[in-house]
Specification:
With 187 residues, the protein is of the alpha/beta class. It has six helices and seven strands; from the N terminus they run E-H-E-H-E-H-E-H-E-H-E-E-H. The protein has a five-stranded mixed β-barrel.
Length: 187
Amino acid sequence: MEKIIQIATPLSDEVIEKLHIGDRVAITGVLFTARDAAHKRLVEAINQGKALPFDITGATIYYVGPTPPKPGRVIGSAGPTSSYRMDPYTPLLIRHGLKGMIGKGARGREVIEAIKKYKAVYFAATGGAGALIAKTIKRSEIVAYDDLGPEAIRRIEVEDFPALVANDIYGNDIYTEGQKRYKNFKR
């Protein structure tokens, strides 16, 4: 069985430098949830010289719009959303200190270049596993943009959140590598 790397947030350059595509990780600490509407507001705030609603330095954003919690639960189903929708906003956020992103699907070239240049990392979470992922979330509170409903920014505390390194600081992309391996597969 492949080793699972335990990592904690906020992320540091030292931790990120040790990660490579395909590494399985278990993340413990604070994540912030945000999808495209919240990302647009974050970028607008930066461009207007306003303070962000949370300290982005070393932060990790999970691309999720969780469902309402059932009675006795911290959060509802919390599966990842498609990351490409955040691509127009992500390079600026990385330049301002964002270190980690969690979602599903491939990222654009500009995001991959920003990951390399500013030492960040993109993790893939398993789509369709929202109920299971929600079990790793121990606390959840809205910190900004409550009017966005499920897309409001939340501060969530996670324990052993499962993810896979999809893009590392060395320019590697698990989606590109996966396609190459598939094409070279011999029957």
